[in-house]
Amino acid sequence: MKKCLLLYILLSAFSFVSAQEYFPKHFGYELTILPSEEKEIKLENVSFVAINERFTLFDFYKNKVDSIPMSFEAKIMPIIEKNNLLRVDRYAYRKSKKGNPLYEAESRIWVGYNNDYLKKHKKEIPYWLSIHRYGFANAFTAMGIVEQHKNKFKLWDKKAAVKGLTPIETKEEALYFLYLMEQVFPDDNFNELCEKKGIYKIYTDTMTPTIIKEEKDYFVTNLFYYDVIDGSLFEIVYQLYKNGKYNILSKKRIYIILAEEWE
Description:
- This protein is α+β, with helices and mostly antiparallel strands.
- It contains five helices and 15 strands.
- It is globular.
- The relative contact order is 0.18.
């Protein structure tokens, strides 16, 4: 109940800027299998789909394409201070369609029970590509992108981000776009589950790693979202058009982590 109330407060506080533009679509998408219809499956009865192509979130950060030199820190600080950013990455791992380095940025949002509390973010909201839960019940993290052109830096708003990242031409670009806009990630092995590192409640008899199918005008892929509040892992299937528009085709809970083992 508390979790739902916090989300409602945040949605209400941002209603004046069309909150759905900045929340992942999957936040409001109803589960394909409702909680009342979920059935627990034993691990030994679960099938794991074999795949040829493997994708991991780490692949997004494998190759550095540029970095912010120390001499440019004075140029980036005004953007950080003006937009209340928690951080801007020093390294760029991707480029825009124009070939400019892109640096990920984050803001921290502490949710209060008073709607007026969040109106202080009004000027910052257009620059949030998406927001997702942080490791506390009343905290969210907003994702953004800073583009570098020569010795100038610009914080993208949603429109600039879509324009700068499209047309989406490769599978990796599709994964990264949805990661920024929806905070979902690829999974290719379910190692933690297979190695029984923790206690799980499983709700599917088939585990399908991330698979990306490319059609003429769009991609279809299954990605995952971990809810840090209740420990649920969700599988979400997206249809992503190459112009940046996308739909959710399905959403289901894969499992709940009841307890984790740490080495």
